[in-house]
Amino acid sequence: MRCWILTIGDELINGLRVDTNTAWLAARLSDLGVEVERAVSLGDDDGAIRDALAGALAGTDLVIVSGGLGPTQDDRTKEAVAAHFGVGMTRIPEIEEAVQTFFATRGRSITPVNLDQALVPDGFAWHINPRGTAPGLLKEQDDRLLFVLPGVPGEMRAFWHDWLEPLLQDRLGGRHIIRRRWFQTTGIGESDLFSRVGGLEDLAPTITLAYLPSAWGVALYVTGKGEDAPAVEAALAQAEARIVAGSGDWFFARGDVTLAEHLAEQLRERGLHLAVAESCTGGLLADTLTNVPGASEWLDRTWVTYSNQSKTEELGVPAELIAAQGAVSEPVARAMAEGARQQSGSDFALATTGIAGPTGGTPGKPVGLVFLACAGPAGTVVRRYLQGENGRRYNKQRAAANALDLLRRLVEKRNPFQGGWESPG
Amino acid sequence: MRCWILTIGDELINGLRVDTNTAWLAARLSDLGVEVERAVSLGDDDGAIRDALAGALAGTDLVIVSGGLGPTQDDRTKEAVAAHFGVGMTRIPEIEEAVQTFFATRGRSITPVNLDQALVPDGFAWHINPRGTAPGLLKEQDDRLLFVLPGVPGEMRAFWHDWLEPLLQDRLGGRHIIRRRWFQTTGIGESDLFSRVGGLEDLAPTITLAYLPSAWGVALYVTGKGEDAPAVEAALAQAEARIVAGSGDWFFARGDVTLAEHLAEQLRERGLHLAVAESCTGGLLADTLTNVPGASEWLDRTWVTYSNQSKTEELGVPAELIAAQGAVSEPVARAMAEGARQQSGSDFALATTGIAGPTGGTPGKPVGLVFLACAGPAGTVVRRYLQGENGRRYNKQRAAANALDLLRRLVEKRNPFQGGWESPG
Known about the structure:
The structure is a homodimer. Chain A is of the alpha/beta class and about 425 residues long. The first copy, chain A, folds into three domains: about 1-170, Molybdenum Cofactor Biosythetic Enzyme, Chain A (3-Layer(aba) Sandwich); about 175-255, Alpha-Beta Plaits (2-Layer Sandwich); about 260-410, Alpha-Beta Complex (Maf protein), CATH 3.90.950. The first copy, chain A, contains 15 helices and 17 strands. Chain A has helices spanning about 10-15, 20-30, 45-55, 75-85, 95-105, 110-115, 155-170, 190-195, 230-245, 260-270, 285-290, 310-315, 320-325, 330-345, 390-410, and strands at about 1-10, 35-40, 60-65, 90, 120, 125, 135-140, 145-150, 175-185, 205-215, 215-225, 250-255, 275-280, 300-305, 350-355, 370-375, 380-385. In chain A, the strands form four sheets. In chain A, strands 2-1-3-8-7-6 form a six-stranded mixed sheet, sandwiched between helices. The longest helix of chain A has 20 residues, at about 155-170. Chain A is globular. Chain A starts with a strand and ends in a 14-residue tail after the last helix. The mean pLDDT of chain A is about 90. The interface between A and B is large, with 85 and 89 residues. Strand 14 of chain A pairs antiparallel with strand 14 (about 300-305) of chain B, so a sheet runs across the interface.
C-alpha cells in the first residue's frame, strides 16, 4: 500500500511550527506495514491544496490529509477537497449535535462558524471527533482511500486509534510481516552504547536497528521484516539477546516505556512510596512522575525548595550546614533526601541540587555542578556530576533522568556508580 | 521569490525522526521575505528524489534540498541530482583536501567513501562544509537557484549562515520589507477570540494574521509585508490596535513571550514572591515557572501534595475539612493556597486540586472537576471549572495555564472571573 501524507497549515511552512504529525502517523503506518513515500506540507491555500491533492491521489492507495479544518475563514482544507471532487457540502445533524454537546459540556458559548463543522463534502463518509469539533472525513474511490483529519495532534491521534487503525488493519489483512521492539537504556551515551551493542549488521536485511537518543536515555528500536513469521521472530530473538547482554545494567525496560513509567511499575510492584525534594530540577521530577496515570498510589508528596530557608523549614536541612557547605554540596543533597524521607514517611526520597547557571559558579563549584541524593531503607547514596552548557531545560532534563536512574538502581539493587559516576562521600 | 524545501531521508518518512530542518529554514527564509510554498519529505530513493526535484523546479525561483549527502551507499541525493540534470561528477581537489583535514584534526581514519564527498555534479558551484564533510552544492539556471545541503541540522544551519543567507540577501536586495509581531492571549478559546478580533482581512495583503492555539493560550502572529516601509508600519500599528482592543484582558504580552515569562517579569518588577501548592497539576506549575531563568528571585518554594495527609502536614489543611468536603473542593483549594502562603511567607500562593481521572469521579464531582485558588494580600480567589476528556497531560497543562492566568489577573488587578469563569464561593 503506497501512502502520501499531506499536512496543511501556514504555520508549517512559515517556520512557526514543526510538523510532528507526519512522523507520528508514519510510525503508526509503518507498524501496519504501510510505507509512506512522501510527506508534503502546504499552507492554507485552496489552489495549493487542490494541486497537491491531485498529485497525491495519482498513483497512491492511501492519502492522509491533516490540518486546515478549524472553524475560521483561514482554514481551507474542506473547501479545497470539495472543489477537487467538484461536490457541494451537506449539513449532517449528528455532527451538529456533537458540536453542540462539545460546547455545552464545557460551558462555552457556540458561534455559527462552530456549527459549520457539520458541513461534509458530498460523497464523503464522516466520523465524529472524539476530542474536538471538526469531523474526520473519508472518500473511498477505486480501492483508494483519502482521509481528511484535523491537525491538532491530540485530535488527529484520537482519530487514528478510533477509526483509521482498525479500518486499515481490516483492509491490509496479514500479507506483510513487520515486527518492532523497543529496548530502553539510560545513563549511557549513544556512542558508548554503540561500542557495546553494535549495529547488528549481520542480521540485515531482516533486522534493522536504530539508536534514538534523548535527554532521558537512548532507546534502541529494532524492526524485523520479512515474508516468513518464524524467521522474523528468530532474528528478533537474536537481536534482543545481543542488545540486552550488551547494554547490561543500563538497560531498564522492553517496550515503548519511559523511565518514569518503568519506575512507577517497580515501586507499585514492591509496595514502595516515594517523596522528592527538588532544587535544580525545579519540579520537573514531580511533573515527570505525575504524568504516569495512578502516580498517587506511590508518590506521596514533593517539594521544590529553591530558597535556603525553605530547605531548612520544609526538609529540616540545618541552616548551619548550608552556611558552611553551600546549598550545592554533598551534605546538603544528603540532608534534603533524608529530610524528605523522614517528613513524608516514604520508603525512598530523591533530592537534587545544582548550579544551573548562567551565574553563581565559583572555581571550586563551577556552573553545572550537580548533586543527586537518594535516601532509602539501606541508607543514602549521593551522585555528583558536572553538566555541560546545554541550556537550562536540557540540564533540568539530564538531572531528572540521572536522579530517576539512581532511584531505579537502588530500588532494583543494582550498582549505582556503574559507568564512571563519582561518589562524593 | 517562490520557494520549495525538499528534505530527504528514510528516517523522515518512516516515523523515526521529526523533520525540524523545514521549520528552521522556513523561519529564516521568511525573515528575508521569501515565502515557502511547499515542503516535501522523501526517502533515500533515486526515483522519488528525481521526481520531486522535477516538480519543485517547475515554477519556483528557489529550491533548497537537505539530506541524503552522507558518505554511505544509502544516501542518494547527489546521484539523483546529477541524473536529473544528465551530468557526470568531477572530483574537486579543494574539497578532498578539506575532508582530509577534517579527519586529521579529529584523529579519525579516513576511508575511500569519505573522499567521494569531493565529487561534485558538473555545472554546480560548491561550498566547503564548515562543520562536516559533505560540500554544499548550487545550481543556477535562468534566475532559478537550487541549493543542495546536508541534513545534519548543525551543518545545514552553518551553510545557511555562511552561504545562503548572504547570497539570498544580495539577490533580493532591499526590495522586500517584512515585519513580524506576536501578541499573546490566554484564557480564551480560538473561536471566541476570533469573534472579537476577526481576521483583519481589510488590511490584506499588507497584513496577514495567524491564530496559534496551544494548551497555554492563543498567540496571534501578525506579518506585515510590502515595498514601502512606512505603509507596512502604519498597517502594523492598525493591526496592533485592533488586536489589543479586541482581546481585552485576555491579552497579556507583546512579543514571543510565554505566560510564565510574562508572570516572572510582573512579579520581579513588583518585588513579589510566589509559592505554589499543586495537586492535579503534579509539579507542572513548578517546572514551568522554573524554566524561566532567574526564577529563584521570585519563586520561594512549591509543594506537590498528592496524599490527603500531605495536604494537612505540609499546608495545614484541616483533616476534618478534607473528610467533610473532599480533597477536590472549594474550601480545600482555598486552604491549600492560604496554607502555602502562610507557610512560605510569600505574597501570593497558587493551589490546584482536581479529579484527573480516569477513576475517582462521582455524580456530584465528575472526573475533570478542577478548583484553582490564589491567595494574595487582598484575600483568596477560587475558580472552578470542568475540563474535557483530553488526556492527562493536556489536562495538566490546561489547569496550569488557568492557574497562571488567575495569578496574572490578581497581580495585574484585572477581573479574575471574566469570560464565564465560575466562582464557587
